[in-house]
User: What shape does this take?
Amino acid sequence: MIIKNIESRVRLATFIAGGSLVASLLISMIVSFFAYRQVVSARQSIYIMDSGNVPMRASQTDVQMNRAAEYRSHIGRFHSLFFSLTPDDKFIEYQMKQAMYLIDESGALQYNNLKEKGFFNSILSSSAVLTIHTDSIVLDLPTRYFRFYGTQKIDRRSSTITRSLVTEGYLSDLEIRSENNPHAVLITKWKTLENKDLQNVQKNTL
Assistant: This one.
């Protein structure tokens, strides 16, 4: 009888010890899980000070959540730099330099072709002002293919020409953002599909 009591007490003690160990492990895992979530949540929030030294919370978001908008902004910025020009050789040079930060060698190839054809000299000689308006940007995220639809206006002393512009290309992500390429995107395989006159309005030069 005494031996049986001792055995039952040993089994009870073993059961209690094992149960305590399992419970401790479960509690540790649950606490670690919630602590990890708390740390991740804290890392996604920063605080900035306003003019009155009052802390204001700012939340961090996943880059991919806003990537499509960044792609469209990058495409629009490049086309604005490349196709919005004034009759100023220094300004044209600056615009082209900034545009080349956003595109691969396909952009330099088109720039050189236009330069060889005297396109930029014609802007200077005719005092033309070129502006581009983005109509729409079609973007396929899985393949990172885009097609740009825009309307370009060429305002000369003698006439105002409105042209349709359609280009296409692909997008490649860069690892590092910079001042010259804030979205860390590079346009590749870029080419012009359409660039034709829609309207040519003559001005009264008298």
